[in-house]
Amino acid sequence: MPIGAFARRSGLTSSALRFYADTGLLPPAETDPVSGYRYYGPGQLARAVALRRLREVGMPLAGVEAVLGAEAGEAARLLDEHVARIVDQAAAVREKAAVLRSALGKEEALPLGAVKGPVLADAVEQVLTAAAYEPGTPALAGLRVEVDAEALTLTATDRYRLATRTLVPAEGPARTWAGTVDGAELRAAVGGIRRCPAVRLEALSHGIRFGLGGRGDRYCRLVPEDFPDHRLVLSSLGGATTRVTASKELLLRALEEQPGADAVLRVGGHGLTVGTVDDAGPRLAVPATVTGRALRVRFEVTTLHPAVSAAIGPDVLLDLRGHDRPVTVRSADRGDLTTLAMPAAPAGTAT
Fold first, then answer.
1. How far apart, in Å, do the first and last CA atoms of the chain sit?
2. Using one digit for the tens of pLDDT, what is the confidence trace for 260-294?
3. 110-149: buried (b, 16+ CB within 10 Å) or exposed (e) per residue?
4. Pairing label, strands 327-331, 284-286
5. What fold characterizes domain 3-68?
6. I want to staple 153 with a disulfide (CB 3.0 to 4.6 A). Which of 143, 146, 296, 331 is the partner?
7. Domain 107-230 listed as CATH 3.40.50.300
8. Distance of CA 22 to CAs 38, 278, 284, 325, Å?
9. At 251, phi and psi to the nearest 5?
10. Cβ of 273: how many Cβ atoms within 10 Å?
11. Which residues pair with 265 in a beta bridge?
12. How does pLDDT run across 125-154, given as a tens digit for each residue?
């Protein structure tokens, strides 16, 4: 096929194909000796697409040549090494940018208080289990931080789950403040935060600075997009109709042993069971204390399992409100971490 047609099918421009032909990475199958027109065969398409994708992830030409010429296992190893280098370079750039910010001028900072590093790190990891990356909605991958005179509240949501945890800072803030912190940058900072006895938080115009004492500072940028109105969700929940207290370990085990993507919780006077949607599979009994009316609620395992897993302590408390209302998952003895999980729609209904 002529170079133009091959360019359209491979996603490479004609000029890029000429360049890769000249470097020897992708020579044409045939070149007209009179006109100089280049022609490519269908068998070259897979190599062209792989070449394009490797360049899209920043692979240098020498690396591209090595990957394309390697066996599958070796090619995967080379790609992993390249990604690791990119991640390390990004971390180094982030650190240098933080130093550069300070060098450009003293930016006015708002003190947000101090929190024990291990406690803050645990809270960030627990709450971020409810975050999710979605193109076009970066706020869903972030962590909402709200500070007032009494508490530091962390919240994340992917619209199907919502997790929130409240911490009491050792020192109160200068005033109330709220912002959404980039989740990826915060995850990268968790290791340093965890090793610091006390972390001082300061709000800047476009980010949060975590003061780690002798370990230096970590800076995480703010996401400018609006965070979902989680306070409206929390205030409109209404009271629970059924309350269940169960072993976290046994409930997780029952969810893990379900063969399908969904699991059905049946709650009643005889306790709690976890079974399949069609009732054909095993129905596993989980010892539990139940108060309120009987319910049958269907959940996606990928929604309920992380909500239960993130709970603090050996027991979890489930507040159920019906088959189509969010369930609140809390620790039975500590209520400062709360997760909401949406049930799955019953079969045959719109989601």
1. 46
2. 899 999 998 778 999 988 877 778 999 999 999 99
3. ebbbbbbbebbbbbbebbbbbbbeeeebbbbbbbbbbbee
4. unpaired
5. Multidrug-efflux Transporter Regulator; Chain: A; Domain 2 (1.10.1660)
6. 146
7. no
8. 12, 61, 64, 62
9. -65, -45
10. 18
11. 274, 297
12. 999 999 988 888 889 999 999 999 889 999
CATH 3.10.150.10 domain range(s) in the chain: 107-230, 237-341
| Concatenated DSSP letters of 118-141 | HHHHHHHHHHGGG----TT-GGGG
279's CB contacts (< 8 A; 6+ apart) are 264
Amino acid at 42: P
Sequence-distant (6+) residues with CB within 8 A of 273 are 265, 266, 283, 284, 285, 286
Q: How far, in Å, CA of 12 to CA of 4, rounded? A: 10
Residues of the chain with CATH 1.10.1660.10: 3-68
Contacts of 115 (CB under 8 A, 6+ apart): 152, 167, 169, 170, 198, 199, 201
Q: Which two tokens stand for residue 306?
A: 């992380």
Q: Does pTM surpass 0.70?
A: yes
CA distances from 254 to 156, 284, 290 (A): 26, 6, 17
Nearest CA to 97 out of 257, 223, 207 is that of 207
